[in-house]
Every structure is written in C-alpha cells, then in structure tokens.
Amino acid sequence: MLKGVTSFLQYLREVHIKELPVPSSVKVVYGNESADFDSVVSALAYAYCSFQMHPEDPLIPIVNIPKKELFLRRDIVRALERSKVSEDLLFFAEDLKSLKERFGPLTAVLVDHNSVEATMGPYIAAVVGVVDHHKDAGLHPDVKPRVIRTAGSCSSLVIRYWHKYLPVSAFKDIGLLCLGAGLIDTSNFSSKVEDPDKEALNLYEKLFPDLDRELFYKQIKRDKDDLSGFSIENILKKDYKQFEVQDSGAENKILIGISSVVKPLSWFYENFGGESRFRDECVKTQTQRMVDLYIVMTAWMDGGTFKRELVILSSAPELCQDIVENISDTLQLEDKSLTTKTASSPQYYRTFQQLNTSASRKQVAPCVSHAFQNIKL
Ligand SMILES: [Mn+2]
Question: If you measure from the C-alpha of residue 152 to the centroid of ligand 1, how many angstroms do you get, rounded to a whole number?
Fold first, then answer.
C-alpha cells in the first residue's frame, strides 16, 4: 500500500492515468472556482482518503485554476511546501481539460460547493458525491456521500466523513494541510466553529500533539495576507467567484462576480496611486469578466476589530441602485463613497462599510441573488 500524498499523486500520474482504457469514465474531485485553501485541500484530502479505502478506484483531485495562477495563493503554495507536496504533481484546470479530451466526459465529486459551476458544465457528465458547507442548492439528491451542512471549514466535513471508515493514522500525511484550512476558515477555531470542526480539531490534536497551533495559524494567515509584489488586477483575480441569477419569472438573468480581498480599500489607495486607480481596475475587471454586477468584498483586522467593506459596481445603474437598497439592511451598509456618479459616467460605483461583519461571501452571494429576484423589473 502506498503511503503519503506525494506517492498517491505520483501513482495517479504514472500508473493510474496511463493504464486507464480509452474511453473511460474518469473520476475527479474538485472544489469551487475560488480555489482557496479550503477548496484545494478538501479536494486533495477527499481523494487521498478515498484512495485508502478504495485503491482500485481512485479519484483525481483537481486544483480548479490554471497552474500559472497558483502563485497568487501564497498560503497554499507555502503549506504545500511545508507538507513536502510538489506543485508539479498536482492536477490543474488544464489537466482536467486534457483528461476530458482523452477519456471523455468526467464523473465528479464536488467539495466546497454543491452545484456544478457553469464553466465546468462541459466537462462533467455526472456528479457522484457532494461534501460542502455552502447553502444547499437542492441538486443531486441521490448521490453518496451527500453531506451539505454548516461548518466553519469544508475540510472538517471531509475529515469527519472519512474518519467513519479510516483510523486516525490514515490522516497523518494530509492532516497538516487540513488543519491549515480549518485554522484559516475559523480563525484558529475561534469563530464559525461547528461540531464537525471540533471533531476535526480533536483528530488534529491526536495527530500533532506538539504543534503550536497559534504559531501555525499566524504563519498561514501571514502567507494568505502577503500580497507584496502583486498588481491590483492579480489581487482581484486571486479569490474570485461568479454566478448567474434568474429572476422569479425566469425572464431576466444577470451574471454577478465577487472578489474577496484581505486588505482595506485604504491600503489599495495608498499602495496603488489613489482611489481612481482602484476604481479603474474594478471597472476593467467587470468589463473583462463580462459580469453585470461586480462586487469587491474587503475583510481585515483593524487593530483588534474585524472589519468589512463592500464595493459594488455595474454598468446598469438603476438595477444596481435597487439591489443596494434591497441588501442594505441585512448587510448594514454605510455609504462611504468618495466620488459620486456624474452625468458623464454611466457606471454605478459605490463603496460601503459593511457593518454586518459576520456576512462573508457565503452569505452575501445569496443575499444579492435574492435581492435581484425581488426587484420588479
Ligand atoms: Mn470553504
């Protein structure tokens, strides 16, 4: 029996894929399009654990971004280094495409999301399992596993699911990466902690009794917040999700994009030549992504206080105005825009302090969708 994440990935590349007949229904597991720490690690952990139970039927874990974009996620890059997992062994978006081209449409387990994103539609023939902590879209009712519930980190749900079948020792080589996801998602198990997170933490404590958790958390957090040398464009690209929303009559639909960033707007203004430059970059992203509504969510610690801001822009000012009115109460938005819309600028662009700091993108995305569905067009 092969041991370790590296051996597992090497086996997939050098044996499994080479021996598969063409065509085959290749099985993959992947996280959501933001490809954040939780998504990447949940996919890797799910595949690794599954392989220990069913070595005859491996799943290929996919990091759902082009390989050249991984460098933007320093928390992931450095955590992989610490766990001695080489980037070159991982499978990325381009590998997913070539797997499909070679073997035919793929079968997938979804982690850290529970419906196939539009961009993935052409590659995935069937979903065969879901483990997630986002709002349940009610799809894939009969798959096994189908674990969709609240948890600080999806990695905790993956750990909990496989711990039903595998002994503690089976998690040794993947545990540190999963702990990293748990630490990031729950701020060192101090917020959004649910039972699955507690159970996962219990396992990590057995695996790594001597680990200084606080120190480890600080290290990962520092890596995540380290944006030195990145352009605004790259920072906005680093943690991005988009989704389409239909109104209740299914007559109109809009595409919404949300970037999450770990620095306040003032940091962008200071480091990148002022407010207008930041605004221009947001407009550029919105145009390039071809989204009707583009949102930037900032989240950071101001001294000891956790703060959030929300930037919202659109080339459809009236629609945007209506949506903002609709979400304002729930998110407790306080307008702090420096510039106002002028007759010459058809663009809606506003910045807000989001006083409801407990609402992360997980809550803001459904809130905005709901607002659009409520608007009388
Ligand atoms: Mn997650």
Answer: 8
Q: What's this model's pTM, rounded to 2 decimal places?
A: 0.91
List, for residues 198-229, the tens digit of each pLDDT value. 999 999 999 999 999 999 999 999 999 999 99
**How many alpha carbons lie under 13 Å from residue 47 in its C-beta half-sphere?**
29
How far, in Å, from the CA of 185 to the mean position of ligand 1?
Answer: 7
- What is the enclosing helix (H) or strand (E) of 107? strand 106-111
Between CA 41 and CA 27 the distance in angstroms is: 17
| Fold designation for 5-225 | inorganic pyrophosphatase (n-terminal core) (3.90.1640)
The domains of the chain are located at: 5-225, 232-374
Q: How far is the CA of 28 from the centre of ligand 1 (A)?
A: 18
Distance from Cα 339 to the centre of ligand 1, integer Å: 34
| Residue 367 scores a pLDDT above 80 | yes
Residue 2 pLDDT greater than 60, yes or no: no
CATH architecture for residues 232-374: Roll (3.10)
What separation in Å is there between the alpha carbon of 35 and the centre of ligand 1? Answer: 9
Q: Which two tokens stand for residue 304?
A: 């000891």
